[in-house]
Amino acid sequence: MNAQLRSAKTKQATSLRRAFYRVAIFVFFCVLSREVRAQQPAEPVDVTPLDGETYYLINQADGLQMDLNSGSTAAGDHILQQSPSYSSLAQRWAVSKLSAGAWTISNLLNGLCLDAATSSGVTWTVQNPCTTGTSSQEWSLHPTMDGYYAIENQAAGLVIDVYQGSLSAGAQIDLTSLTGTATQTQQWLLRPVFFRGIDNALLEKQEAARVSQNLTWWKDAGTPADVLQMLKNHGINLVRLRPASMPPYATQPANGPCIENLCYAETEAEDLDLAKRAKNLGMSVELTLFFDGGSSASMPAQWTNDSPAQLQTDLYNYVFQEIEGYRSAWAMPDLIAIGNEVDTGFLNGNDPGANFSNFAQLQIAGMNAVRAAAADTSIGAALPAPLICIHITPAWDLTTFFTEANSYSIPYDGICQSYYPFFHGPLTSAQAAASNPNHQAVEQSVLNKAATTIGKPIFLIEAGEHYENGFDSNDPWYSPPTKTTQRQFLIDLNSVLRALPGNLEMGLAYWDPAGVNIPNRSGGFLNGDNQPNAIYSWNGLTLFDNTDSSGSTNVNDANYSALLPAADALGGKCDPSLRYKLLNRSTGKVLESAQGSSASGAPLDTATDNGSESLSQQWFLSSNGDGFFRITSAGAAQSGVPNVLDDSGGSKNAGNAVVQSSASTSQEQEWDVVTAGGGYFDIVSRISGLNLDLNSAGIAIQQTPSGSALSQQWQIIPVHVTSSSAAGFAMAADPPTMAIAQGSQGSATITLAPFARYAGTATLACSGLPLNAACAFSPSTVTFDGKDTVQNVTLTIATQGTGSGTDLIRLPSTDYPHPLATFSFLYVIAVSIWFSMRSRNPRTGRFRGLIWAGLIAVFLFATGCGSGSSSTTPPPSGPSPTPLGTAVIIVSANGAGAGSGNASQAVAILLDVTQ
After folding, report:
1. What's phi and psi for 769, nearest 5 deg?
2. Considering all CA atoms of the chain, what is the largest pairwise distance in Å, rounded to the nearest integer?
3. Start-end of H helices in 339-465
4. Which label site among 123, 575, 685, 896 has the fewest CB atoms less than 10 Å from its CB?
């Protein structure tokens, strides 16, 4: 009995110990999981530029930019440095990554690649047609500091330099040895031509709040990661900062209630750290000074009693100190604004509406301080100054404001503006025609006018659109608010900017993308007004999912803080003006039509990515606003209708081939682009819901989605280098976007720039036109004389109106009256004579006769009875009107060279048919 009792007690003790261990292990893993859940990912370092991005190459010694020799298209010509231009394509360079890790650098104007050539003992940087496997056209990018690189030629082992260290505009670019630390003339800043930014100065405060509440981290395709790295993977290249510095502003207590607007700003230390993180990822930085949490209306406490002259001095000293602080931290901004939305308030009554003269003097003081701090040699070698803009809202017309700014000689570089459609009105004239309840100005018209009149680059420094009901009332143009409409807003906004006259697009930044709600354990939200360190809460406006469909954020939802599709539009992954290659993650090969076929229904396979894709390996992505994309081949189709990715036969079966087929309105030719994380995407058929995949033979098929199948994941990378013969031509469209009212026509200039002494012809054609639209070229064929003379062609696109039978391109009428007009003419004469004869009073009869004669004349004029060039009256029936909406027009030029080989190019124009 005792033995049994002891045995039972032993078993009981063992069970208790096991239970205790189970509980302890459970608690341990619970604690561990909570710690992991709240753990901030390590901050990465990845200073490489974005593959396919276009940059200005700015020399550190003098701030001059790499340029062509007077726009030359001749092979072997020298490359120069020139004063900065923000409209010249000759100063814009695309960097494209090769599979082995090196880069090609090609010019946007002539399509030629940087190369090396030795002459008289000097190795020069020159331009040549891009060819594959040419080591002298391959470059290594060695980061030096603060966004600068030493750019080394793979063949020569030398780095790009300025000949004999010249600091003069027009100096030629050569290659020299790198011995130890790169000299200033050997260092080049890569500044994006088009900023794709986030206005997320609150990020470090949001990160701290998330850790304090033990919440899941932001994630991409279910995987938590550093927020900036995630956004860079999607093409984001700039971070905007708005520190509320203290001093000179009032000191905010570390604990307890924050002070007024300072609740909604970050500290200097937080934003300086964020700037360093951005630079460690090769991203640019925009710095807005004098942000008081609302605009810039507040006067810093220490300056309250300043005279106007003393205020200018204090402002100068403060800005100088700020820029030197960022410069010393190797986080020099690329763009600076002296004040946030200054038209709504600036330093207690020194805003432009109250006193433009005082405002101008303060802006001039601040801008002078920026340039002086950059040039200060007491803390190191001088650096090129950042760009400087003035930031206003649409409450003040851009052209009017900056005309006034010019009259005071404010030395700004660019125009910065906020734009939110629910505050500021319709984006395009088509939207305004559909709905404009407050009769607001059309943003596209405002931007185009400012670009034409002022001639400065334009940066939309703040933008936002709802994806769910939340912070403010919805607008009528992107409603109901969904993830799809939010993405479409950014596609549309991008297209409007890219089409600005004079190539004056500088980019856009999205407001507070990571600011999803952070619930507080004690109730409410950490980013609401009830907390000591409040941050903005704009529900339904972020680029990460707020999961707030029921009116209260659900942090346990699997999609909480998941990256939204709008990030891809912001990052340029679905820009209709760009050509892309689709690079498979599993094979590292690019999608193409099999053997370069242009036949409708040709199968799709993959080919080696050699950094110089043929047109059959390049694709346009366009959206009609329904949430899906048409993926169009850049190669000319045999049928004259563009080929697109097609779910053959509308099959919903896994394993079926994907082909390229002539475009239609069929949903089987529509695809969604869905993030797969890490900079890769799933391309999903609308009809079947299956993913674009590859079979074992490398043929494109559709397959059941699988997160682990790397063959279903694709990179979407802009292409700027097209494989061609040694001689050929580059092609560009100006503008790349056309808005044409239904029944009207519009024109664009197609520029063909030959190189390498290309001699021959190029015949132009267009495809992808919507129903009852037509295109014409003048001339339709150009001849190249072998002297690299640039040729311009006028493209005219005409649309069908709602009046039935309207000619697409109107022709002059004949000299003969229309039969109906003749009959009417005789009828009116008879009636007028009858009325005149019935009058008893001859004077009255003559008067009536004169009246009827006048009516006859008016009638004949209105009916087109006279001769001339008026259009004929349309018949009672005819073609239906061109459908409203967007279409991507592929303009192709097929060359026939005279002893120089054949060449072909294509460019896309986004057509918007409006009412």
Report:
1. -65, 145
2. 148
3. 356-375, 398-407, 421-424, 429-434, 443-454
4. 896
Write the CB contacts of 736 (distance below 8 Å, at least 6 apart in sequence).
Answer: 498, 499, 577, 907, 908, 909, 910
Residue 320 lies in a domain: no
Please give the tally of structural domains in the chain: 5
Q: What is the rounded distance in angstroms from the CA atom of residue 762 to the CA atom of residue 729?
A: 9
With contact defined as beta carbons under 8 Å apart, do 473 and 481 qualify? no
739-777 core/surface letters (b: 16 or more CB in 10 A; e: else): bbbbbebbebebbbbbbbbbbbebebbbbbbbebbbbbb
Q: The CATH number of the domain where 77 resides is what?
A: 2.80.10.50
- Measured CA angle at 771 (ends 769, 774), to 5 deg: 50
Q: ∠ CA(907), CA(911), CA(915), 5° rounding?
A: 170
Q: What is the Cα–Cα distance from 386 to 381, expressed in whole angstroms?
A: 15
Q: Residue 858 to residues 779, 855, 863, 864: CA-CA distances in angstroms?
A: 40, 5, 9, 10
Q: State how far the Cα of 374 lies from the Cα of 391, in Å rounded to an integer.
A: 21
Q: What is the pLDDT of residues 642-679, one digit of tens each?
A: 899 999 889 999 999 999 998 887 899 999 999 999 99
Half-sphere exposure of 429 (CA within 13 A, CB side): 14
- Which domain-ending residue is among 666, 700, 718? 718
Radius of gyration of the chain from Cα atoms?
A: 32
In this predicted model, what pLDDT tens digit does every residue of 733-770 receive, in sequence order? 877 778 898 999 999 889 887 776 678 888 898 877 88
For every residue of 798-849, DSSP letters joined together read EE--SSTT--SS-----SSPPHHHHHHHHHHHHHHHHHHHH-SSHHHHHHHH
| pTM across the whole model | 0.83
